[in-house]
Hints:
Number of helices: 14
Strand order of the largest sheet: 6-5-7-8-9-10
Mean pLDDT: 77
Shape: globular
CATH topology of the largest domain: Rossmann fold
Number of strands: 15
Radius of gyration: 24 Å
Number of domains: 3
Structural class: alpha/beta
Helix content: 25-40%
Amino acid sequence: MTISVVARAEEASLPREHRFRVAVVTDWSLAALPLAALHAFTAIFSADDPVDLVFATPHQPTEEDEQCIGVLSEALEGPAPGSILLEHVEELTHRPAELLISPDSDLSVTVIQVAQFVAGMHRIRQALPTRHAGEQTIGGRRESPRVASRDITVAIPDTSSNVHARAFDEIVETLQSSFTRIGMRPKLVSHEMAAQDAPSVVVAPHLLDPRILETLRPDTTVLYNWEQLIRGGTALVSPTLRAAMSRFTIWDYSSVNVDDWRARGVHAIHVPLGYDPLLERLPELSREPDFDVVHVGSVNKRRMAILEALAARGWRVHAAFGVYGRERDALLARSRLVLNLHFYESALLEIARLSYLWANRKPVVTEIGPTTSDDLGMRDWCLHAPYEALVERVEEALLNPLRTARMTDVAYHRFRQVADASIILQGALEETPVWRASSAQAAPGKGGSG
């Protein structure tokens, strides 16, 4: 059983303005819900402080389900929730606040824990009158950043000369869409056309010609790094290149990398890849998938060992390298599950790859070990295992498709909640000297906000 708890304060007029709406997402039959669990739930609240209790199912509610809800409502004695409702999980109109993953516990115990959790949120609601209770995000609000110029140049790798530069396609598209959502005017150019005198973000600077890097101005240019830097990581960022990059403000996808930059005296800002609606575009799963497990990316010994172990157990395993865009999407649609493995022992989470899968609700089992960096806090909200347990974890996911689908939904909602790309980028712009200086110059006249 997997239960996710979604809680929010209602925004309607009195007396509902302080009411909480709690959705229990479960694949259990509603008819099997112990009435004692509902009594325990309602006992937490007073009659003048009600809570709407919603059961959200992965299937369309049936007439029998509706009748069951009616019976449960009539059977309650004493203080009751504001209402007991039934919805399809896809129709939930609010964002997740907290999720409780309880694969084995008794449903009665879980509902009691849920009630206690929501009761605690009631006690702090006055301090959080404008926020969804329990909501946490990377960044803060989403609004137009305080900058003088809305124009921003995004310099991207040239895919015509390097097909593997297409690995950054979704990163670039997310930047373009999310910058636009916060009122910026992004302009995409190739690395070779990187601006020397306009505020610019250079994506994947390790692919930039060093001669071009030398011509760029640190006071107008930000380098957005997407490579692992620590020991055991990539050799694509050489010591010479690192020294050249150190003159600039660095945006980096990994907080581990950021700490390393800062230890060297570089001004570095953590800018992970977040959720953008543009990412949701994968075609539906084929009715008869060709593969059980697919791995996309280059393969080394540590990756190959897991793939071969799965194949030895009879699973249809496919490893693909150098596939991007629609070709990759078509491959994903023909596969039941994606396996994400670390390439390097440095174990930085491959957020660029995972964000696309989470945003598209594609089942993915990812390697997360004791030392894996987890900047978005997704460890408890996605299918994962340490390296030595990956084969068993993948088998479990394949043999339990309903639970896998539920956990995939959990990861999707959690990712949307904590990592809105527009909020992340807004915060990054306001921390970056290039745009902060522009804002300060515009402050006296309060103009130029474009």
